[in-house]
Specification:
Rossmann fold, binds magnesium ion, three-stranded mixed sheet, about 35% helix, alpha/beta, binds adenosine-5'-diphosphate
Amino acid sequence: MGEIDPVSLLEPAATRVRDPVSGKSVWLAQMVRRPRVEDGTLKFDLVFGTDHTKQDRTDIQAMVVQNLKALGVDDVQPFARLETPRPGPSGKPAGPPVRGMDQGAMAPHGGPIHKRSIPGVKHIVAVASGKGGVGKSTVATNLAVGLKQFGLNVGLMDADVYGPSLPTMMNVHSKPVVNKEKRIQPVQAHGVSCLSIGLVVDPEEAIIWRGPMIMGLLRQFIQDTDWGELDYLIVDLPPGTGDAQLSLIQAVPLAGAVIVTTPQDIALADAVRGITMFRKLDVPLLGLVENMAYYPLPDGTRDYVFGQDGGKNAAEKYGTELLAEVPLQTAVRRAGDDGTPAVLGTDPVAHTFSHIAKRITEKLPV
Ligand SMILES: Nc1ncnc2c1ncn2[C@@H]1O[C@H](COP(=O)(O)OP(=O)(O)O)[C@@H](O)[C@H]1O
Ligand SMILES: [Mg+2]
């Protein structure tokens, strides 16, 4: 195939493969380099960025090769390589950065943050949502207390600076004590070690805090707190996919993330952004919780107030588990307002929350 122009084969083959990172075709994203024919073999470089997962790399390469075969080219040899990360803002190479933080624009406070584990804590699980008001804190508190009911050691860290709800939902109002070694002692509630921005600063004040101050406080929650021996530390993340979320996700080694959404399209679109963020940062998705999935009517039927099957479809589409469909009901709201999470109550919804906790123990065994 000496006379064949390699570009005329590679262009159609690579144009038909979508690059999940840039959203463009592999050809337009300029991932195919140095097309050449040597000894009858079509060779080319396939260049990936640090945002590509191993799976992305395998899939893209396989699809390009398959498309070339469909064009009648059997002798193909791709050379996959990783483009070296750009230097950090200081001009020096930034060392092994946390994935997704290797572009200058994403390093908010002077370079990549390196993950620090919390001694004694086995699994850190984030509860996240694309937007506020979907029941993230409701799920986080019930998950924490549900795990406690299985006899596990659990901590709950409320990192949602925009609406810390742990104090209300867990009924804790005492300020955490700082001991002689300047280490923060979490407050106990329902057998769970709790810490919330709402316990430390006036929520109205926290809202006007600048990013670095918030991060400073959260860093203390992570590094300067005596969490003790925990099987699970549940982290109630601020909603959205902004700077605060990124910094936090990168400051701790998360074992996984649970995404909370309502069935409504808009909430789901936000949830998808959350899924994409965790994927990019290499945090495993533990599953989706569809909250306010339906309103149970007295005759036993269901009113799908915010639409039906949104969570199920999204879970299927993104290859993750739908952990639960939590109904919209007074018992849940009242339990939250009373500071006694619904998982402790007698309403059947307690089983729904308990099931989420059980799935987490199965996915992240201790
Ligand atoms: N399934 C539900 N049924 C009834 N009320 C709910 C349900 N889930 C959450 N709520 C209520 O909705 C409000 C917002 O929930 P919250 O968990 O604080 O959301 P987020 O943390 O995502 O902002 C709270 O008052 C909560 O009690
Ligand atoms: Mg909340």
